[in-house]
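Work Package 4 report. The design task specified in the project plan requires that, given a folded chain encoded as structure tokens, an amino acid be chosen for each position. We show below one input record used in the internal validation round.
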């Protein structure tokens, strides 16, 4: 269109939207960003950042216990939920200001409010209308609670960080990484945690060995894992919330966290006014350039139903801006993207699961190792680390690496570089390990567990 107010109007100031806005502005584009909740999106405010801070807090309880056998003879300190909660709020406020500063620094116009698409080149925020050559939808996802009797008593990961009172008894419903992580967090902070999952084993989509090992280790920490069960109803009782389960049992709780999935945050966005196709899963359909079926409107990040990872949204934001405003042929390679689950112990993974590798490569070799971390030979904690390598037999290329154990996420970042570079098992074998570390086990597994 001729002479629009902006070259790019971004709806949503989360990881992908802010990165796209900054990069586009850096290429000389006139950019506006509309946000109706908080700068930084889910990750900064109610996702990975506060979650990791709470993981750190929850691990201290185990460390205090571990320390005794190392000679630290002291009583376990008392935990203060308000201190953790309020310090977290201070840190998030600091990060919100940083995100605002990043956009101010490239002269992007930040508009407070929920944006609504009016037509292919017009966006409204409240009573104000703005025109743009291109519109980018980066509104992310939103937690979803299914409708059932008493569902109004459940909370989501949006609210769990800021509860007024610490839940001494917490029920978590769900089997994804969010559910598993919060089970570990509140168990470590002192809650009596029960995790319910309707399937036979949680963490669907991860390697089967990882799922099974994680379940055994998490159960050891005291989390009451209950599989193949769901909630029929929740009612307010005298002593808290009363849950009726599908197996006929009941359970009481101070809070019920539903972590059963997220949906694309499209409500009130005005997509009915334009030709943007939404999939049967409620996500925005895009092509390889993140263009929707309306040529001037784009979308990226969680709202498109891809890998719901902050670094993926960041990479997509960069690729979009480089292509649309920098004249660069840039795309995101979705192969060998590492990820971590900050449950306790941690999960780190990159590449194919065993099932996926068999389907793609046919003949594979597997290498597995289970051992007690060196620290726990003295601490006395009953915890086992598990590692697994998956190798394409024809090429000797390592195509999958999976781990459950301390610092798995930190270790997997380096492993991911090797896999993206095409490292073979022979290269792993000739790499000298760092001793004594858990990570060196990845370069000392010589004998296949099995091969076919």
């Amino acid at each position: 269109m001729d002479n629009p107010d902006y070259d790019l109007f971004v709806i949503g100031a989360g990881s992908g939207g802010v990165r796209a806005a900054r990069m586009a502005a850096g290429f000389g584009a006139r950019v506006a960003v509309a946000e109706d909740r908080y700068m930084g999106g889910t990750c900064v405010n109610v996702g990975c950042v506060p979650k990791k801070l709470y993981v750190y807090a929850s691990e201290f309880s185990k460390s205090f216990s571990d320390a005794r056998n190392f000679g630290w003879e002291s009583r376990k300190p008392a935990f203060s939920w308000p201190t953790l909660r309020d310090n977290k709020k201070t840190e998030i406020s600091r990060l919100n200001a940083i995100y605002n500063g990043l956009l101010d620094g490239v002269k992007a116009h930040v508009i407070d409010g929920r944006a609504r698409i009016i037509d292919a080149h017009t966006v409204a925020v409240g009573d104000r209308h703005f025109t743009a050559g291109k519109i980018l939808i980066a509104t992310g996802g939103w937690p979803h609670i299914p409708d059932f009797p008493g569902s109004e008593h459940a909370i989501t990961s949006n609210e769990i960080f800021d509860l007024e009172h610490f839940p001494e008894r917490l029920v978590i419903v769900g089997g994804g990484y969010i559910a598993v992580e919060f089970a570990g967090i509140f168990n470590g902070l002192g809650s009596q945690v029960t995790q319910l999952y309707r399937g036979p084993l949680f963490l669907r989509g991860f390697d089967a060995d990882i799922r099974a090992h994680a379940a055994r280790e998490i159960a050891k920490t005291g989390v009451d894992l209950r599989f193949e069960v769901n909630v029929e109803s929740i009612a307010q009782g005298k002593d808290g919330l009363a849950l009726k389960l599908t197996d006929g049992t009941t359970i009481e709780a101070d809070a019920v966290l539903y972590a059963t999935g997220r949906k694309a945050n499209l409500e009130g966005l005005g997509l009915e006014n334009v030709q943007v196709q939404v999939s049967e899963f409620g996500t925005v359909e895009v092509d390889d350039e993140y263009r929707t079926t309306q040529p001037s409107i784009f979308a990226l990040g969680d709202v498109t139903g891809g890998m719901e990872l902050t670094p993926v949204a960041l990479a997509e934001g960069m690729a979009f801006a480089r292509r649309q405003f920098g004249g660069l042929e840039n795309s995101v390679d979705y192969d060998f993207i590492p990820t971590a689950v900050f449950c306790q112990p941690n999960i780190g993974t990159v590449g194919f699961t065993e099932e996926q590798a068999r389907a793609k490569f046919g003949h594979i070799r597997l290498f597995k190792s289970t051992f007690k971390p060196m620290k726990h030979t003295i601490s006395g904690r009953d915890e086992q680390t598990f590692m697994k390598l998956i190798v394409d037999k024809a090429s000797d290329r390592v195509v999958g690496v999976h781990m459950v154990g301390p610092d798995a996420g930190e270790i997997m970042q380096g492993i991911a570089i090797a896999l993206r570079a095409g490292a073979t098992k022979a290269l792993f074998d000739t790499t000298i390990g760092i001793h004594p570390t858990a990570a060196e086990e990845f370069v000392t597994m010589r004998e296949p567990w099995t091969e076919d």
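The chain has three domains: 6-142+263-325, 151-260, 339-451. Validation will be extended to a larger panel in the next phase.
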